[in-house]
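Field: COMPLEX_INPUT
Field: COMPONENT_COUNT = three
Field: RESIDUE_TOTAL = 981
Field: MODE = joint
Values follow.
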Amino acid sequence: MNTDKHGFKTILLRHETILLLVVLLEWFYFNSVGPRFGSVDNTFDIMRHSVEIGLLALVMTPIILTGGIDLSVGSLLGLCAISFGKFWRDAGMPIPLAAVCTIGIGALAGGLNATLITWLRLPPLIVTLGTFSLFRGLAEAITRGADTFTNFPASFLFLGQERWLGIPAQAPIFILVAIGIWLLVHRTTFGRSFRAIGFAPEGTRYAGISVERRLAMAYVLAGIIAAVAAIIYTSRLGQAKADAGMGYELFAITAVVLGGTSIFGGIGTVHGTLLGVAAIAVLNNGLVHARQPREVAGMLTGLLLILALTSSIIPKMLASLKARRQTSATKPIIT
Amino acid sequence: MKKHFRELSVAGALAVVLIGLAIFAPAFFQPQPLLSLLTREAPTLVVACGMALVIISRQIDISVGSQFAVCSVCAGLLAAKGWPLPLVFVSSVLFGAIMGAFNGWLVAGLRLPSIVVTLATMVTWREALRWQRQGEFVNLPDGLQWLGLSQVAGQWTLILAALVILVFLALATKHLSAGRFVYAVGTDAEAARLAGIRPQLTTFSVFVFMGALVGLAAMMNVVQSPQVDPKSGSGLELKVIAAAVVGGVAVSGGRGKLWGVFVGLLLLACISPALTHLHIEAYWEKAIQGAIILLAVVADGLRTRKQRN
Amino acid sequence: MKNILSLLLVAGLAFVSGCGKSDSSSSGSTDSAGGKKITVALMPKSKGNAYFISCKKGADKAAKELGVDLIFDGPTDPDPAKQNEIVENWITLGVDAIAVACENREGISTALRKAKAKGIKVITYDADALPDAREFFVNQATPEGIGYGLMDEAARLCGNEGEFAIITASLTAANMIEWQKHIEVRRADKYPNMKMIALRPCDDLKDKAQSETTALLSANTNLKCIMAICSPGVPGAAEAVKQAGKTGKVKVLGLGLPNENKRYVHDGVTDSVILWNTEDLGYLAVYSANALAKGELKAGDKKIKAGALGEFDINGDNIMLGKPFIFNKANIDQFDF
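Field: COMPLEX_OUTPUT
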């Protein structure tokens, strides 16, 4: 059993190492073709542009570790953004109170996902497909599509647009959440149970762990973090609209899978996800400096994803080939 | 009756909607607009059948929208070059099959997870097409629309073609061994392998078949108007997956009936024109769509829960 | 573990070495004076949009004539923050001038103000930002002009009375919301016997516009006119009217590209397509951006000269391209875009 764990660890190590190399390669390449790429300004740009997606990817990691998925986080970001705007503008709440209420909305929405997935044992893919439409639809219905929220006070816009102690103001929040989720996944029993649930939900249940409660926690957390991301997004853009965050869920899933987390669950790390976010963010930013059109970024991301998947499969394939050669004597009786 | 409970309940929901429309907006049932609506949905039905097979085999394919766009544009360009219609049809199906084969190779051959593979191919095809085409429509030569027939004849041809495909696939999944293999692989791939079925080959074939159906559907869409919009097929994957799920296809694989998918598709396709006829504002559409998907799955879950207890 | 540590060390070193590069806070050619090539960055509302590709054609022409380096890039997905991100990337890149067609008025202003603060010249074209975020707006027609023009033409086609429906791209598109407001103002003011009975989005898809129009025609038997204010909507609506057999009975007009509508105009399905010369718009945008960057264009100027197109009036801070142009059977074949 010990050698198995060591085997897995080697695979993990290898995947993240490769990914780190990819990020470094990207960095070096863009540095050479874009004179302004490596500057502090640009690095902060990369940071600021990837905070919301990064938050979603971070919170998607424990969910995917359990073998689930959450397609609704992007739509939830939109719903929370306009809720925030509505609380502040129409209900007249001060910003901090509006923020707290928005996080409440996020938790409720996450709770809806959680209830349907844990209580009714429905497949996460389908539940979150439904809430993906529902949340975005509610955002559009509440604003009648046309309403937007702007003219936020400068003290609020500081969060998304200015620097605090020399770094972008939203970075501390991101770092805190990143550390929190890393600790949750890698250092707590909760985290270990997420992996266990991903490997074998029934086995985990027999082991006495409350699978339902852990799963629910993961989805509610996703809702809360989506709300936080929505607030940061609104502050960065200076505007809250119903179509905020469109497409972010796919981005987040890409980052998580790029980072080495298996979509089937059980395998994955938070630092892998962070590297995945970095890889995509650096790529998108660098291509502008390399004077390449946006479409190239999309195509390369797709290719990168396939390469990442293929590279993580190679050790498994080699192992299974070896195993197959050993057991070729035991062919199925019925042919 | 119990065996088909799931599909019948969706049919029941559809009946409720139609009765409601009959009472509050009888104008919905005029023959010509209904014919147009069904013709517009015919390509979607074809893709939904393919998607049902994919989901039954325990995979998923979210790249169908991008495949649809690529096939439509390529077919349009060939037609504009003067290629004869049958050849254009075959080419479109071929393009789709090739893209499907690429997906299939990665999923079945390299054992990569289908949701991520098709996510990657979806983005890649879409961006490549956008880069190449930059939104420009493809103008088709005259005589291509409605396959050269009159409008009504062309519409009936397309609707019947879609229904024939539906019936054929429904029967094939029941009676052809290839069809049963798909269900077997979706239920338990290992058991299927031990029974002599080759799960990887089945999975690969399902993806190729999906691609071919997308190519066919793209052609069915192309002949409905004199121009091809390179953005066509946008949102198709969501539509067909929702139709399959609402129609009773289980995402865990191995379960689902094609005629359930048909009813599910009709139900979801009704939402938009129903809103127009009931004079309800357009911004409710997404919310209602999401609610229907959730209601369908919740109903499933409640029933299974009752069975479990 | 050791491997990871050593790699992290290497990464850190690389990062630090990269950071040593200059991050000058001003734009690239503050001391241009004919030495360095001026870089103009032009942004469409989104990529893959035939309307903006025709703007780009004019922009390329202007860039060639002026010897200017033109960057053309924009968002490929619908998230509102993407335009901001690209603008911010351009700021760091150090372009001399930015010309943006704004999807979100207030949102984009956040990024444009930053560009202005860094000394980059900012103009908008096609769709404006907030006035304090940019120096000039290259206006092909005021939202008022477009809205009034559409309403007037619709009224003319319907004999000043009857029901009409509007097909828009999406309910959230800022400039279309502007146009709808002005359409309504004009209607209430001059055509009280005309009624707008429905507003449906087509997600900028021709096929969806067709479905929506079919449903509208079926649900409203008194419908006299379809006004499609997004370019894929015009051929989509026209095809639906044609297939419903209502050519001539239900009028179709809208804002669209000539090439996409020639067929329907000649068949008598679509009566008028209103637009402006999009190539000229791109051409003028680049000329204005260049003039601003070189200091030849200043606030308070009343006219600007743009190469082969001649002189254009400046109305306050709006550089006027001219009036909207009506394409119809008589003239649509003269245009190729």
